[in-house]
Amino acid sequence: MAWLKRNANRLWLVMILLAVGGVLALIDQRGELLSPGPLPDSSEGEPDYYLEQVVYTRFDQQGRPYQTLESPRVTHISDSDVSLADTPVIGLIDENERHWRITGDHGRVGPGGDRITLSGNARAVQPDDLWRLETDTLEYDRDSARVWSDSESRFFQGEQRTRGDRFQAWINEDRMLLEGNVSGTLLPDR
Amino acid sequence: LESDAQQPIHISADQLTIDDQAGTAVYTGTVHVEQGSLKLDAQRVELQRGASGGLSTMRATGTSGQRAYIEQQPSPQESLVRGWGDTLIYHAGERRVEMLGNAELHRGGDTFTGAYVEYFLDSRQVNARGGQQSQGGEAGGRVNMTLTPEGGSN
Question: Which N-terminal stretch is annotated as signal sequence (chain A) (predicted)?
Fold first, then answer.
């Protein structure tokens, strides 16, 4: 007992060190301890790997950035070279150096990022011309430089609000088209 | 009505094309426009925007078989003013409507027809012109007016 009393401080110190060491070990192994997360339930194939807190930029042959993607989680399926992103924020830069921002609950980025599908609360915003589109599913095709939706679309430009059954926009040409039961409101000029 | 000019403009159509490089917004296919008591029906309506992004002018065209049509209630006491033309141009700021080609205006009991009729919504003033002299020298289209005397019926 006498020994215990004499070395009480040392014993406390050793126990504290052991506890801190244990916590640090836990933190360090965080990656292994976290479960790999839900497997995508799509028919895309077997995931190869998944990434967390993703930010990537694609460059063209001239080294110019043309597409960025941010997502808390991207699952890549190498067989089909498809990436499935959660709540992606995708940046597109058109030929006139204008930035488009397209978002959605889920994103499917095809090979080379040339074809993107956003589903669930899909949005396309092009600030220079005050364009904003809200729809359910939005498609983007890099070859035709076109963004389109075949689901009900609500288009906003400044104070103009218009809805239609389908929407298309040619991002390099500053041109858009709403079709089917188009109706909207515009404010008088002040 | 006096308040029309401050009302939002409601538009319905089959299709809307916006071309920001050309600065145009074109509605096509059974286009119907309403701004307070002002109503317009046409096959194609092209909007031009003003400085604040709101409506500056509206250019409406009909089809070969059906002219563009516009109506407006000048005041609660007055009857509808109705106008037709192959092309109608509504200048929102000036509250002025131009009717071009097969132009026709019915204002109260008066009727105006010609190649060109212009109507000022606030002052109720009407200007009308015939068509250009055609090759053969005859008048290309005359102005016709039918004015109903005060208190007379049509």
Answer: none
Number of domains in chain A: 2
- pLDDT above 50: residue B99: yes
Contact call for residues A103 and A89 (beta carbons, < 8 A): yes
- Taking Cα atoms as reference points, which of B13, B60, B15, B66 lies closest to residue B40? B60
- Mark residue B95 as left, alpha or beta (left: phi above 0; alpha: psi -120 to 50; beta: remaining): left
- Please check whether residue A13 touches B, CB under 8 A: no
CA A35 remoteness from chain centre: 22
Residue A157: list chain B partners with CB under 8 A: 18, 53
Residue A102 belongs to domain with CATH number: 2.60.450.10
Q: Is the ipTM of this complex over 0.85?
A: no
- pTM for the predicted model, two decimal places: 0.79
Region B49-66: what's the mean pLDDT? 84
Q: Helical H runs in chain B?
A: none
Chain B hits for A181, Cβ within 8 Å: 12, 14
B interface residues, A as partner, C-beta within 8 Å = 5-21, 25, 27, 35, 47, 49-56, 92-93
pLDDT average, residue stretch B64-87: 92
